TrEMBL record:
Domain Peptidase C45 hydrolase: 29-275
Pfam families: AAT (PF03417)
Gene3D superfamilies cross-referenced by the UniProt entry: Penicillin V Acylase, Chain A
PANTHER family hit by this protein: BETA-ALANYL-DOPAMINE_CARCININE HYDROLASE (PTHR34180:SF1), PEPTIDASE C45 (PTHR34180)
InterPro entries linked: C45_proenzyme-like (IPR047794), Peptidase_C45 (IPR047801), Peptidase_C45_hydrolase (IPR005079)
UniProt-recorded name of the protein: Peptidase C45 hydrolase domain-containing protein
Length: 288
């Protein structure tokens, strides 16, 4: 709920909240390489203070709104945050990353995005994921972009879904679903590209426009190496894709890069520029 209340009280408090201003995601759904990759940009204070949550939760009886009995997932986390809002996968083959989006009008009394993306970790297929994102009966109070696929989907379709807060008396999140079919790719940052909505956080919008401009200057990616090259780009000035000036005076840094290889079923984690460094670790995606 970190944005909903401050945004609602913005005219009573003129001090802006310090926050990260960018994460970038690229989906390459190629005939050879199939990649979902993501930069995690965060306040410099969080550098080297993130961790994986690896959980296997078994209940005797189905629990919660979606009657989930068993969950098994891995998610990159910040202290005090629920799993599911960065880069994650579950044992049903769900793989996803999140880009924060900032609508001008947020809705109190609705479901915060962190709760919705946490619920995603229990889903088994795309239909269940849509049900969670719609959050029928309540709807989202704020928004984000979800880049996802299911490894068990025979169509091999990937998706970028923009989620926006509910409108008026509606009780369901607003969603715009973009399919990324085989031989296609998609890039997304921290700006609504398809849902027509008034957006807040001008610095984050400026950063998103700069990063998307950088991506569009490249030829369409064909390989994992192409995607890594794009995510390691340091051109674009202040609002570059990989943010790291080698000093601690930078308010926001790229603290991690994650690369899901959907064919090899692995996840590689980098904390340095992936153009010039090997991953710290490459983990297998353990499926049910």
């Amino acid at each position: 709920m970190d944005d909903i209340l401050p945004q609602s009280l913005k005219y009573l408090n003129s001090t802006p909240k310090k926050q990260a201003i960018g994460c970038s995601s690229i989906i390459l759904n190629g005939p050879k390489d199939r990649i979902l990759a993501h930069t995690e940009d965060a306040l410099t204070a969080t550098l080297n203070h993130y961790y994986f949550v690896v959980a296997h939760i078994i209940n005797d009886t189905p629990q919660g709104k979606y009657n989930v009995k068993e969950e098994r997932f891995m998610s990159l986390c910040y202290a005090g945050h629920l799993p599911g809002y960065t880069m994650s996968y579950n044992h049903h083959g769900l793989v996803f990353s999140i880009n924060t989006l900032s609508a001008e009008v947020l809705r109190s009394g609705k479901t915060p995005r962190h709760f919705i993306t946490r619920a995603l970790l229990g889903t088994e297929n795309f239909e269940q994921a849509l049900k969670v994102l719609k959050d029928e009966g309540v709807g989202a109070g704020d928004g984000c972009s979800i880049n996802l696929t299911y490894l068990n989907d025979s169509s091999a379709t990937c998706y970028n879904i923009e989620m926006a807060p509910t409108l008026g008396t509606e009780k369901e999140s607003r969603l715009d679903i973009k399919k990324i079919a085989l031989s296609d790719f998609n890039c997304h940052a921290n700006k609504y590209e398809r849902i027509k909505i008034e957006q807040a956080n001008q610095i984050m919008l400026d950063s998103s426009i700069s990063r998307m401009k950088t991506f569009m200057a490249y030829n369409p990616p064909k390989t994992k190496k192409d995607v890594i090259t794009m995510l390691g780009d340091t051109s674009g000035g202040t609002h570059c894709v990989f943010r790291e000036n080698l000093c601690m005076d930078e308010e926001v840094k790229t603290i991690a890069v994650g690369v899901f290889d959907l064919n090899e079923k692995t996840f590689a984690l980098y904390s340095d520029n992936p153009r010039h460094h090997e991953p710290h670790v490459t983990l297998p995606l353990i499926l049910k």
